[in-house]
Automatic annotation (TrEMBL):
<dbReference type="InterPro" id="IPR013750">
    <property type="entry name" value="GHMP_kinase_C_dom"/>
</dbReference>
<feature type="domain" description="GHMP kinase N-terminal">
    <location>
        <begin position="60"/>
        <end position="139"/>
    </location>
</feature>
<keyword id="KW-0067">ATP-binding</keyword>
<comment type="function">
    <text>Catalyzes the ATP-dependent phosphorylation of L-homoserine to L-homoserine phosphate.</text>
</comment>
<keyword id="KW-0808">Transferase</keyword>
<dbReference type="InterPro" id="IPR006204">
    <property type="entry name" value="GHMP_kinase_N_dom"/>
</dbReference>
<dbReference type="InterPro" id="IPR014721">
    <property type="entry name" value="Ribsml_uS5_D2-typ_fold_subgr"/>
</dbReference>
<feature type="domain" description="GHMP kinase C-terminal">
    <location>
        <begin position="199"/>
        <end position="270"/>
    </location>
</feature>
<comment type="pathway">
    <text>Amino-acid biosynthesis; L-threonine biosynthesis; L-threonine from L-aspartate: step 4/5.</text>
</comment>
<keyword id="KW-0547">Nucleotide-binding</keyword>
<dbReference type="InterPro" id="IPR020568">
    <property type="entry name" value="Ribosomal_Su5_D2-typ_SF"/>
</dbReference>
<protein>
    <recommendedName>
        <fullName>Homoserine kinase</fullName>
        <ecNumber>2.7.1.39</ecNumber>
    </recommendedName>
</protein>
<dbReference type="GO" id="GO:0005524">
    <property type="term" value="F:ATP binding"/>
</dbReference>
<keyword id="KW-0028">Amino-acid biosynthesis</keyword>
<keyword id="KW-0418">Kinase</keyword>
<dbReference type="GO" id="GO:0005737">
    <property type="term" value="C:cytoplasm"/>
</dbReference>
<comment type="similarity">
    <text>Belongs to the GHMP kinase family. Homoserine kinase subfamily.</text>
</comment>
Length: 292
């Protein structure tokens, strides 16, 4: 038997759609696997009633198939599904690490990214790897056609999750098909600024680089209260605020000592918009941990 804790993640960070990802210290899924001739899945924890146990519909089933590693798999969900916090990816990344150990497959964490991304293809229609990569590797990750680049970084964060459900599949449907050259140039500048900020543990540069004129405005329309919550967080000491992944969670990068104020401001602003929410005061975290 093998047990793995795999963290929530925040993808895109505004300017890095389908490219940037960040591992969060909390929340996390815990995955337990045992050898079996056929894959079977049980699920407990946050939002488990909405998660299919059919291996053909659960991200961990796709990972077991991709690795040719059938197993009895138990998922204890800490990351709410359809949250924008990489819920489906946390399970997939955890299963990839656990099955790799269970069957002594000898794959590196980088090699497991593609197998874990098969789970994302199952639920959202595309094998985007910007959540599974940070859940496997920790820190800040950049996905390109050539693979993954990872850097460790240290930032204090608030991930505020409203009681709204937005599926990644739906949120991909509202993105414009094209972007102007002006918007592309602005996005490239912001993304480069953000990446430099990550290497310097600099919340000001990271926050400055989170703006994105194309994908985020389209998705913000799916989140009641988005503009007010973002403004409140910035006034309370966030350097940047954007939609986390496909939403509905919002990610705020915080100045030193401002995490509590930012979390409170975001919850209050959602409340004013008639939306209940909870805020994770967290930091950039490590990748999945194998326990036994
Ligand atoms: N192991 C799993 N954990 C969570 N959701 C799963 C899992 N397997 C299948 N699903 C399905 O995937 C969907 C949730 O995935 P989705 O990508 O929409 O949300 P998310 O992972 O929280 O978001 P994001 O990728 O934007 O951070 C739900 O329909 C859920 O039933
Ligand atoms: N990059 C993906 C992350 C969500 O899974 C998206 O924004 O659709």
């Amino acid at each position: 038997m093998r047990t793995v804790r795999a963290p929530a993640t925040s993808a895109n960070l505004g300017s890095g759609f389908d490219v940037f990802g960040l591992a969060l210290e909390t929340p996390a899924d815990v995955i337990r696997v045992e050898r079996a001739s056929e894959t079977s899945i049980t699920v407990t924890g946050v939002g488990s009633t909405y998660i299919p146990e059919d291996p053909g519909k659960n991200t961990v089933g796709a990972v077991a198939e991709a690795l040719d590693a059938p197993a009895r798999i138990h998922i204890d969900k800490g990351v709410r599904p359809a949250s924008g916090l990489g819920s489906s990816a946390a399970s997939a990344a955890g299963a990839a690490v656990a099955l790799n150990a269970l069957y002594d497959l000898g794959r590196s964490r980088e090699e497991l990214v593609a197998a874990a991304a098969e789970g994302e293809a199952l639920v959202s229609g595309e094998a985007h790897a910007d959540n599974v990569a940070p859940s496997l590797l920790g820190g800040f990750t950049i996905i390109t056609d050539d693979g993954v680049t990872q850097v460790d970084t240290d930032l204090s964060l608030v991930a505020c999750l409203p009681e709204i459900v937005v599926s990644t599949r739906d949120a991909r449907g509202v993105i414009p098909d094209t972007a102007s050259l002006t918007d592309v140039a602005s996005t490239v500048g912001n993304a480069a600024t953000l990446a430099v900020g990550m290497t310097r543990d600099d919340p000001e540069l990271v926050g400055q680089g989170m703006d994105d004129p194309v994908v985020t405005p389209a998705r913000a329309a799916l989140i009641d209260g988005y503009d007010a919550v973002r403004t409140s967080a910035l006034e309370a000491g966030a350097t940047g605020v954007t939609v986390s992944g496909a939403g509905p969670a919002l990610l705020a990068v915080c100045r030193e000592g401002r995490q509590g104020a930012v979390a409170g401001a975001m919850i209050d602003a959602f409340d004013d918009a008639g939306v209940e929410s909870r805020a994770y005061q967290t930091n950039v975290g490590d990748g999945a941990v194998l326990y036994d």
